[in-house]
Amino acid sequence: MTEQLIPSRRGFPSDDPIFALNAEAQAFKAAGGSVLNATVGALLDDAGQLVVLETVMDLWRELTPLEVAPYAPIAGDPAYLKALVQRHWPAAAGAGAACATPGGSGALGLSLRNFLERGQSVLTTAPYWGPYATLAAENGVAVATAPWPGAGEPLDATTWDAALRALMRTQGRVLLWLNDPCHNPTGRSLAAADRAVLSGLLRDVAALGPVTLLLDFAYLDYTREPAAVAEALADYAALGAQGTVLVGACMSLSKSMTLYGARAGAIAFPWSDDPTLQAALTQSCRGTWSNCAKAPQSLLLRLAREGKAQVRLSAEHRHWSEVLASRALALDAALEANGRDGLRWQGGFFVTVATPEPEAVCGRLKAEGVFTVPLQEGLRVGLCGLRAADAPRFAETLCRVGSTR
Description:
Layout: H1 17-30, E1 36-37, H2 54-62, H3 78-88, E2 97-101, H4 103-115, E3 121-126, H5 131-138, E4 142-147, H6 157-171, E5 174-178, H7 192-206, E6 211-216, H8 226-242, E7 246-252, E8 265-269, H9 275-288, H10 294-305, H11 307-337, E9 350-354, H12 358-367, E10 370-371, E11 373-374, E12 378-382, H13 391-401
Parallel strand pairs: 1-10, 3-4, 5-6, 6-7
Antiparallel strand pairs: 2-8, 7-8, 9-12, 11-12
Helix pairs in contact: 2-11, 3-10, 4-9, 6-7, 7-8, 11-13
């Protein structure tokens, strides 16, 4: 019976599109088909098994009942919030205005409820992670985009400036979700010059009204270029410290700690001590999920106290970053062997292969047992689940079943 549902809550798909594609791949495999499943958003080893970081699991097993069972504070353990911020910005004095959230998605949702009115638009990149649109829709917000630079290309400053000013003109404020470094779904980060240009544009627009930059830090631990990531974080810290633009981050333990099921993360504005902002975030927590789980917060605090565990975890992150890099290089080589350009992966779990008619090409690939996620700009390919040995089959099938550019 659906008449009890209000009309606006009817007609949704039965599952998230990405999870639905993964289910199709599993069904194809169960029926005896040979599958390349590049839809998965979790890190898998070359045997197709979920990677679980040993350092994290050792810490998890050490948790005591009192580190697991009690309620955490509504806004999260202040020490946890500080430790999570300092994983990315060690020089930060604290977390600033911050609260614990159920993963990075919870942080994104919280930003919509506090920095935009219903009917307004959040700005992000094209392409972007598909659930951004779902989060926006659930909060009565639209998604506006500006283009992510192509491989080897500079930021389109003119288009970005126009997008920022259009939003400021129509709604009097700007919220920008920026998944950088290690962009999902392209796998590329902004160059230093691009960050400087974008920071300048944000400062200029902030002279006209409030601007909030929320950095999505889902994949920072999996990068080919750790020094470049550190440089990017320093640049964003400098922008935040200036105070013209409100700079914050949504952080998650899902990928960084392979604690996908623990649903732990945070939203933090390290350069703001505004009590009004803190009160608003805390109120949203109470009115949405109340308290977040205590166990993952306790685990992160153990990690922050144990230097040997930090060294071990860093080594694990480097190992899996190297695995992802080898997969990216294999895919680039296979694409180039089939007359395509390489994708120049720098970090994260994904790359995007540009192709016309992505939905149609995705359908033809599925018939061949190759599963990807269609985007408006092309096909998202999960390096996190695609073995290097599978790259030749992927590239050959793509070039055979769909016209590409």
